[in-house]
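Hi R.,

Here's the chain you asked about this morning:
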Amino acid sequence: MAATPERGPLGADPPADAASRPDRGGSPAPASTTSAASPGSAGSADPAAFAADPMAITESERAVPEHALDPPFALVYDVVRRTAREREAGREEMRKRLESTHERYTGLAADAAVALHELRGCLEGEPAPAVLASIARRFATALDRAGVRFDDPVGEAYAAVGRRVDVAHAPDSGDEAAMIVARTLRPGVLLDDGEVIRRAQVVLGFVPTPAEREAAPGRTDDRDTPAAPRPEPSNDPNCEGGSTR
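And here is the predicted structure, written out as tokens:
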């Protein structure tokens, strides 16, 4: 084709095919595979392209675990179980401490009650020195403030106190319902809440009749009150009776 002086020579027309004609049903040519990768692709893009986008996620952000992830309910169950074990261990430790403290407390209360009983036995029937009488009152006050009850059932019916005493000696014959506590060898110790720390040790006998009282004033008949086994001697030679621990 001849060239025109105004526009110069014309180039050859492009080949006409169906793919380059979208108006005749052809599809556009596919995009080149050598174009720049999208920001979400990994490894093929330039690292400088990701530096411009702080929200971009790459494979180096977090390693994928090799094992399967536990479901949420399994994680919650594990946390609850671990918490329950720790709580139970704390309760067991507290229980042991309370038992140890309670044992020391009750042991001290029982020893103090026995000492008070022996002191009262020394003072009974004799002019008591003021100092000893004051000590006895202080013992009784301390036990009362600590919530310790002093159980000395002498003179009470055995049927009423039989569940909280140990019988050291009793008459060989006679009606058990008519027996009374003739002597207390070791007092019982109870707490305000009803707990029995130590049972009382007693000697049983019968209530003397009026004729027996007139025949032997101030004494009971040997048949009614048998001789009781003597307790272990006390360290105090002036005190009749002794420790029954």
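One quick note: Residues 29-43, 218-245 have pLDDT under 50 and may be disordered.

Cheers,
M.
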